[in-house]
Structure formats: structure tokens, C-alpha cells
């Protein structure tokens, strides 16, 4: 008799724990789904900074390899900046602005 009572208690506790976990998963999914606009906005900002960097490099008729050597980073780093996969550090952004002959604010303005 006591074994069946204990099994019933464990079953109820298990169901309660499952319900709590399910609720947390559903809330997390809903939060993720509702953050789509924010994620798109963030991607657009990164893309616009990358596009600005690429446009200035092309305007100056420089290769990614040349820019990488001038800044002191790898060519892959320059590619990631231009693709929006990562952002240059503040010091690298200042070096890029100087290399392209534009004020740093102009590069940052593209990221607004």
C-alpha cells in the first residue's frame, strides 16, 4: 500500500516537473519568435557597415589582402568585416578610415 502511494507521489512530481519544463520551453520559443524583427534589424546594421567597408575598399581600388596587410590583420578578418560576420575593433576602424581617406564617423554612420 505504501509503495503504491509513493509511486503515485513520484508520478505526480514527474508530471509536474514535465509541465514546468514544457512551459519554459514554450516561453523560450515564443520569445525567440517575437525577436525576429530585432534580429533582422541587427543583421541590417552589420550588413550596412560591411557594405560601407567594401564600397570604400572598392572605391580606393584595393584588394582585401592589401587592406589586411595595411591594418595588420588577416585577409579573412577583412572578409568577415565586409560580410557582416564580425565587426572591426575601434582601433582597426580608425586605421581603415585613415586608409580609405574618410573620417571614422562616416564609417560609423553607415552602421546606424
- Specify the number of helices: 6
> CATH architecture of the largest domain, please?
Orthogonal Bundle
**Number of self-contained structural domains:** 2
Q: What percentage of amino acids are in beta strands?
A: under 5%
- Helix share of residues? over 70%
> Biggest sheet: strands, sense, closure?
none
How far the N terminus sits from the C terminus, by CA atoms, comes to 69 Å
CATH topology of the largest domain: 434 Repressor (Amino-terminal Domain)
N-to-C SSE string, H for helix and E for strand: HHHHHH
Structural class: mainly alpha
Compute the average pLDDT: 89
Shape: rod-shaped
Residue windows where pLDDT falls under 50 for at least 5 positions = none
Characterise the protein shown here.
There is one protein chain. This protein is mainly alpha-helical. It has six helices and no strands. The chain has helices at 2-34, 36-59, 64-71, 75-83, 90-100, 104-109. Helix 2 crosses helix 4 (75-83) and helix 3 (64-71) packs across helix 4 (75-83). The N and C termini lie far apart (69 Å). The chain crosses the membrane at residues 6-30. It comes from Anaerofilum hominis.
Descriptive keywords:
112 residues, mainly alpha, 434 Repressor (Amino-terminal Domain), 2 domains, 6 helices, 81% helix, rod-shaped, Helix-turn-helix transcriptional regulator, Lambda_DNA-bd_dom_sf
Provide a short characterization of the protein structure.
With 112 residues, this protein is mainly alpha-helical. It has helices at 2-34, 36-59, 64-71, 75-83, 90-100, 104-109. It has two domains: 1-34; 44-109, 434 Repressor (Amino-terminal Domain) (Orthogonal Bundle).
